[in-house]
Amino acid sequence: YPTGVGALIVNKRGQSVLVKKYYGGGTVNIAMTREDFHEKRFEFSSNFEDGTLSFLTIANLLEGFNTLEHLVPTKMGKNTMQRISRYVFQLAQYGYEKLVTLKHANGQPLIQFYNHTSYKNSSCQGGVITFNILHEDGAFVGFAEVACLAAVFNIQLRTGCFCNPGACQWFLQLSDSDIRKQYKSGHICSDYNDLIDGVPTGAVRISFGFMTRKKDVDKMINMIEECYLSAPAKRLQHIDIDKLPNSLKHIPKRFKPKLREICVYPIKSCGAFKVTDSWPLTTTGLLYDRGWMIVDATGRALTQKHVSRLCLIRPLIHRDKGTMELTFTGMQPVEVSLEVSSYLNDVTNASVCRSKVCDDIVAGYDCGKKVADWLTDCLEMPGLRLIKQCDTRRGQNGSAREISLSNQAQFLLINKSSVRWLTNKIASEEEPTDNTVDRFRANLVIETPTALEENDFLSLTIGNVEF
User: Fold this and answer.
1) Do 433 and 383 reside in the same domain of the chain?
2) Catalytic site residue 353?
3) Average pLDDT of the residues in 356-369
4) 163, 168, 189, 353: which one is catalytic?
């Protein structure tokens, strides 16, 4: 059915003088309600589409009202609109009373409602329910995720701020600075950027009509229960991209784990080298990961358990130069070769003491006096040497193993979302999440939409490599 009114043709040369003093819905990226500020959309044509009236549809309003009166006639002193109003309110009341009882296993409410009433009086409450869904730890679920899951179940919802930025800001308890921060982070009106640093930019709204039935409300509630209470960790498995409308097809990509950092720890117990691009894999893990160790005069490997200042030694790998640069606050950096020749260096045997590999005998190449003196000055301990491990190390039973100096496995993965969840549970003082993540000394730092999703991973594929 046609809804347009034709086209307005404008010469681009007139753009500079066609500056309106007003704006309407659909023409701005952001509009503030507590101060005089808005920013128009970048496309020139979008600035003139102020919620254009649908004249052809307006012309059919009378026929529409006649159809409603035929389907829902006046009855018992109630006209058509009064009957519809009461009916949709009862549906909303029923849905609200069902949703308000939903709780996680730990007692955390599943739903955060946005309303002024408790659905007791139809004169001050319409036939809608506006809300956000909460995870078990109280964190918000993004409305885009909910919209995708609902679409798979053939349920149509409206999400966002519903062209009401004032109410949206008030109910979500967003300050003006919060609104500006969300905008600078990429969120604009009517997009699907639903969470910015865990803070919602909008909500979910269920709207009821005269054609809605009680079974439709039950279907919506069952979908929420199935996806967020019965098996919340598996909820995203419901999403079938082929069943989504085109406007939502891009969203499921956001629910996949994102690789945030690749970290290489060249020297055991020392700081990380954070990769800014791709990085090679070897049979022992990431190239150069935990390939060196610092030993004392007795041949024992140093660890942070006994020498906490090791974490202040920061390595920088220059693969193009074939060198590794070591830095330490207050000291001039020192460089060592990434490839130490066995013909030019003595072979030293050392035991990695009091760790999961403490029974293994490690053969390595001494990296020389220059770096040894530098380490002694940094850590204020005499007789230190930097040792580069040979290709294999031997256990007490004499068997050879091709493995790096890592304590247990060749890769350690950490989920930033899980770290954030854990920090909120136990931290007495607020610490930046990135700092806490660094404490785990992970090689692969990922981030998932919710915490602890990695507990259900059977495998993880990064690029074309399966872990």
Assistant:
1) no
2) no
3) 69
4) 163
* Residue for token pair 């607020």: 430
Contact 394, 400 (CB under 8 A): yes
Look up residue 140 and give its DSSP letter: B
What is the distance, to the nearest Å, from the Cα of residue 387 to the centroid of all Cα atoms in its chain?
40
> 37 or 20, which is more confident?
37
pTM tops 0.70: no
Q: Which of 223, 254, 285 is the last residue of a domain?
A: 254
Question: 454 to each of 153, 244, 417, 418, how far by Cα in Å?
Answer: 26, 26, 10, 9
Contact, 161 vs 155, CB < 8 A? no
- Residues 381-401: tens digit of each pLDDT: 999 999 988 765 555 544 545
| Higher local confidence (pLDDT), 12 or 90 | 90
What's the mean pLDDT in 130-150?
90
Asked if 422 and 391 sit in the same domain, the reply is: no
Place of tokens 């030694």: 313
> What φ, ψ does residue 128 adopt, rounded to 5°?
-135, 155
Instruction: Please check whether residue 48 is in contact with residue 8, taking contact to mean a CB–CB distance below 8 angstroms.
Output: yes
Torsion of CA 455, 460, 462, 467, to 10 degrees: 110
Is 222 contained in some domain?
yes
pLDDT digits (tens, 9 = 90+) for 302-340: 999 889 999 999 999 999 999 999 999 999 999 999 986
Reduce the DSSP state of residue 314 to 3 states and report it: strand
Let me know if residue 217 belongs to a domain. yes
